[in-house]
Amino acid sequence: MAVGGDGKMTEENLIEVRGVTKTFGGYLAVDNLSMDVRRGEIVVLLGQTGAGKSTVLNLIMGTICPNSGQIRVAGFDPYASFKALKGRLAVSFQTDRLLPWRTAVENVELGLLILGKSRSQARAHAREWLARVRLKDADDKYVHELSGGMRQRVSLARALAIDPEIVFLDESFSQLDHVTSRTLRRDFLQIAREFHKTCLLITHRIDDALEMADRALVLSPPAKVALEVCISDEARTNPHKIADLHAQIASAMGGESQIEH
Amino acid sequence: MALDADRTSDEEGRAAAAIIKPLAGAIVAAKNPEGRRDFFATCVVVILLLVAMEITSRFVPDYIMPSPVAVWSAARELFFSDPYHVAVTLVRLAISVTIAMVAGVVIGLAMGIFPSARPYLKAIVVIDTGIPALSWMLIAVFWFKNPESRIFFILLVILLPFYALNVYEGVRALPKELVDMIESFRPSRWQVLRYLILPHIVAYIFLTTKSVIGYAIRMVIFAELVASAVGIGARMNLAQSTFRIDQVLAWTFFLVILNLLLQAFVNGLERISLKWRSEATVR
């Protein structure tokens, strides 16, 4: 598949970015970026710090406006039609961003209440999602009573509970220890596959991409696609192919390959 | 059935304990060593003051410094004769603080949420903070005939800036991360207010109430003294004009105790409302 796409908007693509440029003052953060994400696909945006990953995510979420180019998310311009995407997108951030005055279950039901669900419906649904992320017994705990991994699980449950078409993960596993991060990645992947979610993940960790992505886009500053690789399940089970992909990605990111064992 | 009744009674007991425990904890010595030290020090200071009063009363006339026993007798007398005045003052205090709180919170929120209105509201609040309480009292006497209106007006204009400025600071202190998080769900402005801003400023409202409660008591007494014929302030005025310094001192001690009780009450409410906060201790 061509990196930049063909400039046409297709129904198959849930996210389409065409020739987008973004500057902050005189600083060029995104330079003529084009990319797309198909329905049900898990795409990882990789890049070192300062590569413009978060800016791209903010553009796609519609929280900032591009200087030029076009972005379509589920058929809408995410900036101009910000409210039209209510309930269709959800984000899990690098830090858990839980509201400390709400319990775990109350945090999960937040998005549902904003979507207009009744309190009882939202509560029941939130409990289901907490169970799915293996936090059944932590419903009524406040944020300060939860570990870092548990908080991130609550954050994931909060994002997934609204049943969004597209889930954004912004370095969601990067602040966790190795074991917790791996467990959480696997749990998320299982849920994303089960519920056919379209996912766009932002990370600087190659292993996250190799484990989770159908496709990985490596960004180099100022947010240009330097490399695009497809990662099949077959490749994931082949250590040689994984090592080769790892080396390719690391090279595109401007570093050396260090495979996580 | 009996089990249900037991369970209900247990639950009621737990609910009552949740309210009473923090109050009792603040009145009776706290369990931690620092609380015990504070309580002990307060008792020592009170005893020393009483001893000083007793000694002074033996060397000066009664109308300058009565003995603690005389003040105690006056307090007992007032306890039976003036509960109505105490109730009036407490109701005035409760209503005034509530009105000032609501108005201050609304203005503080408007300052935080509407940037175009902020400079104007801020100017009003800052000018208000510069006007002496005494000026407001005298103005209130000119502007309002009804004593209740005078007192509510005085307390409103004096306490409002504290709430408005603190709530405004609370809105400004909202972590951007949380704002971005809730915005990612694309909520209405009302939903942002309800789910994020209002719960966040509760701590600031309690902080302000704890800071102003003593001041509010002083102001309501002063306002009663200037603008009303009923209430503790009015009774203190009467005691002063009839040379009953024992009653003035009895009212003064009562007001000190009232302040402590109200502080404990607000602390108890705060602990219940902000139970989600983890208590950090610094060694």
CATH superfamily of the largest domain in chain A: P-loop containing nucleotide triphosphate hydrolases
Q: Give me the number of helical elements of chain A.
A: 9
Give the radius of gyration of chain A.
18 Å
What is the CATH topology assignment of chain B?
MetI-like fold
The shape of chain A, in one word, is globular
Strand content of chain B: under 5%
Instruction: Give me the secondary-structure category of chain B.
Output: mainly alpha
The run of helices and strands of chain B is HHHHHHHHHHH
CATH homologous superfamily placement of chain B: MetI-like
> Could you say how many structural domains of chain B there are in total?
1
Sheet with the most strands: spatial strand order of chain A: 5-6-7-3-8-9
Measured between the Cα atoms of the first and last residue of chain B, the distance is 51 Å
Based on CA inertia axes, which overall geometry of chain B fits? globular
Helix-strand pattern of chain A, N to C? EEEHEEHHHHEHEHEEHH
CATH architecture group name of chain B? Orthogonal Bundle
Strand content of chain A: 15-25%
What is the CATH-assigned architecture of the largest domain in chain A?
A: 3-Layer(aba) Sandwich
Find the biggest chain interface. A-B, 28 and 21 residues
Question: For the CA atoms, what is the radius of gyration of chain B?
Answer: 23 Å
Structure characterization notes:
The complex is a heterodimer of chains A (261) and B (283). In chain A, 34% of the residues lie in helices and 24% in strands. Chain A is built from 9 helices and 9 strands. The radius of gyration of chain A is 18 Å and the shape is globular. Chain A is an alpha/beta fold and 261 residues long. In chain A, strands 5-6-7-3-8-9 form a 6-stranded mixed sheet, sandwiched between helices. Chain A has helices at residues 53-61, 104-108, 110-114, 119-132, 148-161, 178-194, 206-212, 233-236, 239-253; strands at residues 13-24, 27-38, 42-46, 68-73, 89-92, 166-170, 198-203, 215-220, 224-230. In chain A, strand 6, helix 6 and strand 7 (198-203) form a beta-alpha-beta unit. In chain A, helix 4 crosses helix 5 (148-161) and helix 5 packs parallel to helix 6. Chain B has 283 residues and is mainly α. Chain B has one domain (66-273): MetI-like (MetI-like fold). Chain B is built from 11 helices and no strands. In chain B, helix 6 (133-143) crosses helix 7 (147-172), helix 7 (147-172) packs antiparallel against helix 9 (189-227) and helix 9 (189-227) packs antiparallel against helix 11. Chain B is globular. At the A-B interface, strand 5 and helix 3 of A face helix 8 and helix 9 of B.
